[in-house]
Amino acid sequence: MSALQFRQLRSRRRQAAADGQQGLVQSADWKRPSVRWGLGGTQTALLVLLVIIGLGPILWLAKAAVTPTQDTLSNPMAIFPHGVDWNNISNAWNEVDIGLYIWNTVVIAFGSWLCQIVVATTGAFALSVLRPKWGRVITGALLTTLFVPAVVLLVPLYLEVVHPPVINHSFVNSYWAIWLPAGASAFNVIIMKRFFDNLPREIFEAARIDGAGPFRLFVSIVLPMSKPILGVVSIFAVLASWKDFLWPLLVLSNPSKQPVSVRLPTIAGQTDLGVFLAAMLIACLVPIVGFLIFQRSFLRGTGLSGALKG
Amino acid sequence: MAAIRFEGVSKVYGDGTCAVDELELEIEEGEFMVFVGPSGCGKTTALRMVAGLEEISGGRVMIGDREVNDVSPKDRDIAMVFQNYALYPHMTVAQNLAFGLKLRHIGKAEIDRRVRDAAAALDLEEQLERKPKALSGGQRQRVALGRAIVREPAAFLMDEPLSNLDAALRVQTRAEILTLQKRLGTTTVYVTHDQVEAMTMGDRIAVMRKGVLQQIGTPEELYTRPGNTFVATFIGSPAMNLVPAPVLGLGPDTLLAGFRPEHISVGSAPDGCRFDAIVEVVEYLGDERLAHLRLGERALVAKLPADERLELGSTVSFGVPRRAVLFFDAESGFATSSPA
Amino acid sequence: MEPALTTPGVAGLRRVRPSRRTPFSWVGNGGLSRLLFLLPLLLVFGAFSWYPIVRLVLISFQHTNEVITTWVGFQNFSEVLHDPLFPIALRNTAEFAGLALLFGYPIPLVAAVLMSEVRKRRGLYAALAYLPVVIPPVVAVLLWKTFYAGGPSGVFNTILGWFGIPPQQWIQSIGQAMPSLVLESTWANAGATVIIYLAALTSVNPELYEAASVDGAGLWKKIWHVTLPQMRTVLLVTMILQIIGTAQVFLEPYLFTSGGPDNATMTILLLIYNYAFGNSLGASYGEAAALSLMLVAFLAVFSLIYLRATRSWSDE
Question: Has residue A10 been placed in a domain?
Answer without folding.
Answer: no
